[in-house]
Each structure stands twice: as structure tokens, then as C-alpha cells.
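Summary: Need help interpreting a holo structure output

Steps to reproduce:
1. Submit the protein chain below together with the SMILES for adenosine-5'-diphosphate.
2. Request a joint structure prediction with the ligand placed.
3. Inspect the C-alpha cell block that comes back.

Expected: a single structure record containing both the chain and the bound molecule.
Actual: see attached output.

Input attached:
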Amino acid sequence: MNAPAPNLPVALPRIRQLDEATANRIAAGEVVERPASVVKELVENALDAGAGRVEIAIAEGGKALIRVTDDGHGIPAAELPLAIARHATSKLDGTDLMAIRSFGFRGEALPSIGAVARLSLTSRAAGAREAAGLSVTGGRAGPVVPAALARGSVVEVRDLFFAVPARLKFLRSERAETQAIVETVRRLALAAPAAGFVLRDTGGDGEGRVLLAAEPGRGDLFDARLARLAALTGPETARAMLPVAAERDGMRLAGHAGRPPFARGNAAQMFLFVNGRPVQDRLLAGAVRAAYADLLPRDRFPVVALFLDLAPEAVDVNVHPAKAEVRFRDPTAVRGLVVTALMQTLAGAGHRPGGSVAAAFRETGMRPDAATLGQWFRVQAPAGFAEAPPGFAAAGGGAPAGGAPGPLPVPGPDRPLGVARAQLHDTYILAETADGIVLVDAHAAHERLVWERLKAQRAANGVAAQALLVPEIVALPADALSRVLDFAAELRALGLAVEPFGPGAVCVRAVPALLGAPHAAALLRDVADGLAETGDADGLRARIDAVLSRMACHGAVRAGRRLTLEEMDALLRAMEASPFTATCNHGRPTSVSLSRAELASLFGRR
Ligand SMILES: Nc1ncnc2c1ncn2[C@@H]1O[C@H](COP(=O)(O)OP(=O)(O)O)[C@@H](O)[C@H]1O
Ligand SMILES: [Mg+2]
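--- attached output ---
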């Protein structure tokens, strides 16, 4: 900036006290970022008031309406004006900023919301003979008036950001804002498993569509949290959770950790809490992923619900107005606790990391030493098989009927992936090539093949569907359900026919024929994840690709299933013929090779 020339008369800027409306609007910028932040603040207020049931109604992604109804202790009529005044709170007396036991304490939410929307507050304090109400519009408060309400409070927010149109432009699509609201409520519902929750999209009026519902939890905290997890993530996921409990240096970690096979394609189901508060903390999320690092590919995220409790002095929740971030006094100790507790839990359940061998293969391509090779090449003779894996079995020309195998085919240059010789650890195909050996990850390779075939079918004349003899009813969490039904038409074009089936369930009538006989519930769960994973901006095409990729996994031959030599060979030939089979759907290699020269040098033959 140019300094004004000395001695010239300039208009001195004046320091003024901002009026309350302006101050509130500025504060609102931090507290109320999007509709989901309003939902968070209002639900937290309900929980702070001791609510046993919280009902949330939204319309147009929360932009038109957010209404939170609770049965908590309410607000006395005389205190209603204070509730919407800045820095007025019943939760802090100003003596100890450290010992905070409630969600709220800054006294900023209601005035901030009132500054940027039409806010109305109706409440009946416990024991009061009458209810009262108060409205604020764009920062201007009306009078306290008598109202009709049996108990608790109703807080209604309409036309969010009407007073700050610039903000409106930053909001994402209705669908994306709705999804953010669902995530917010989900996290709070896990934080307070004793309270019942219903989230509805009213679409303007009427009863509306249920996006999330959870009954009040019973039993001890552990059971209540597990039941809540089941309500929010599906019963199958909840059944696959391992209990976590660890203590160290005055910190306690408790909760549930998902087994690796139940991992998801995004972090939406990593639920982390610090002193009861849902947080999106990098340090904690990083520690969780580190604990799973050797058990999961980099693009898979475990399902966890972890509750860290520590002395209030050891953590600062007052870093950000929305309180989603926290600062730990001793981050190293926190990370250590989380990583060790999770690794012990997982190892105790038999999930041991593959260790240096798998890591070496992944990192370096393929240069194991001789000892490592010895470890890997414990060859198992291929045994009988139950069902033919769909998609490539037919190419093999029939399996030998248990008799002596014919003469071994000779690998030649026409078969770059070689001739299948054996299956190792029920997972890898060992093939002999003209110039060395190849190991193929059968599941990864087949998954890729099925994906490519699904994409080719879709591009040609639509994915072929196979009607189920007996339609399957699949229960899904409310948000997954609504996503799947929203895309029912698109999914039908992908060979997956689903119909609504009462609250909380869909009826699956057909599946893509290429998938054989997939597990319908697991397939739908993954399809719903695939739909959630891509943002609006990515468009329908990206969604469809994501869904097809998820589907392919269900059609692929499972790791752990024995293959015949014919099946293995058919897979290798199909890989050679199909594009993009060098990597699986997630970008990992499907095969690694060792040349004869490399083998010779490993054994010191040169
Ligand atoms: N649903 C509710 N039930 C009872 N009291 C409420 C409710 N919502 C708000 N209040 C009262 O209004 C005050 C201000 O709320 P808020 O602006 O969110 O600040 P904070 O939650 O930080 O105290 C709260 O301290 C509480 O006393
Ligand atoms: Mg509050």
C-alpha cells in the first residue's frame, strides 16, 4: 500500500464498535458454513438439553428448511431473548474454560443463525405452564409471544443465507448438502446412542422421506453403541466389528473396529470422537489408517467407531468455532495409543499384516530374495472345485474328469502370461513363461476382467441382466436406501433391478448376468457406497464407472477359492486378450514377473 505523503491532510479512519447485527453476521461466517453446520448446532443444543428424542426435518438440502424438535428441558420464556443473544450460554459460567462437558459453550450458534436466516424458537421449559416463542429474521428479533408446545423445544430455520446471498452461491447441490446433513446426524447419533433420532426430508411439506432413523439405545454404552452402529451402517457391518479397549497415560480408547474385508471406498464410516464430541481430526484418522496400513490397500478405509477420552487439559476443543478440529497436548502419545490398540485388536482376531514380503512386492515390483521366494513357493496342487467362476470358465473347454493330466502345454511367445502351473495360497496363479515365471493375483485380475466386460456391455447395448428366481429383500441404512432408489433407473441399465420394499429395504429382482450369483446384500451395500463416493461434479458417468467397478468385485473369483489348471489358463488367456488388465480396478498390479536371468541371479547361478 502507498503511504500518503507526509503533512497532507488525510481522512483518518475512525475506529467504531460494530453493531451487534454486523458482528453476528461475521461470526456466522465461521459457525454456519453450510446447512449441515446448522443441523449440527441445533442437534447439539437438543442433546445438551438432555433430549431423549431428536427429530430433524429438512427441505431442499436444508436451504429452505431445517427444523429440530426435541424433548429436552426447554428454555424459560424470560430467557428466550438471551438464547439468541451473542455470547449468552447456560453451559459455561466463565470460571473454567477447560472443563467443558457439553457440546456447546460459546453461545454463538443461535445468534449467528438468526443473523443469516429466519429463525424461530419455540420452547416450553420443564415445569412451565405455557410455552413461548421468539423469531429472528436477518438479525432482527421479534417479541416473545405465547405459543403452543407440550414439552421441549422446536427450533426452525428457514431460508438459510437469504441475508447473505454470496454464501448461497457457495452451497453445493441439494443432494450434496443433504448428504452432508446425513453424515452430520449420523456422527451425532453415534455420539449419543441413548437418544432416538429421525431425520426426514420433507420436500417442503408432509411426512417426508426418512433419511435416517435410530431408536433410543438400551443397555450399557458398549451395547448401545454397537446397536447404533448397526442402525447406521447396516447389521452385517456391525456384526463384523471387533471390540477395542485400551488405556494409557490417563487416556482411554474404546469402541469398535471393522474387520479389513468390510472396509469401504471412502472415509465416511470412520467415526471418531474425542471426549464424546465427533471430530474430523487428521491425527486420529491418520493413526487409524496407519494401524490398518498393511491389511488394506491404500484406497480402502476401515469402518471404525472410536471414542477417545482424556483429561480436558490434555485437549483443546476450542480451536475452531465448529469444534470439528481438536489440538492434543501430546499428539505422539495419542497416536501411539490408537495405533497400538488397533493393531493389537486386529492381530488378536487373526488379521496379521502380510509383513515385509507383501510390502516388498508392492513397493518394488518384484525383487524378492531367494529366502523370500522359498516362503512363497509352497506349491499346493490344484484340488477339485465347487462352482465354475463366472466369466471365464467356459473358455477352458471343460475340466479334466479327475484323471491324469494330459501333456503339459509348452509356453511360447504367443502366451506372454505363460502357462498356468499351480495355484499358490489359494490366491496366486504361478505361470511359466518362455522367459521366466509370472505370478498373477487371480481375484484382482478377474475383477478387472469383469469390470472391462461390464463396461463393454454397457457401451454396446446395456448390461445383460439375470432375473433372480426368488427376488431378494435387502435391508439397507436409510441414506444408502435413498441413494439406491434415486438411481434405480440408472442401475437398471446396469443390470441391477431394485424396487422399494417398505421402509428400510429394497427388493432385488435382477443382477448383472456376468456376476453369477453374487451376495445381494453385499453387492447393494457396495453399490450404494459407489454412488456416494463420487461427488455431484463428477457426473453420472463417474458414478456409473464407480458402481460397475464395485459390481465387478462381486463377480470376481474370490481370493481363497481353488481353481483348476484349465480355469487358471482361461483367466491368463482372457487377460492377454483384454485391455487394461495389467492393473486391477484399484490400480494395483495384477501380475508380477521374474525372468530366468533374475531367477538365476537370485540363486547365484551367474
Ligand atoms: N434445544 C434447546 N433446548 C434447551 N435450551 C436451548 C436449546 N437450544 C438453545 N438453548 C439455550 O440457548 C443457549 C444458546 O444456544 P447456543 O447459541 O447454541 O449457544 P451454546 O450452545 O454454545 O450455549 C444455550 O446455552 C441454551 O441455554
Ligand atoms: Mg449450541
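--- end attachment ---

Reviewer comment: The longest helix spans residues 442-461. Residues 138 and 233 are 38 Å apart (CA to CA).
Status: needs-info
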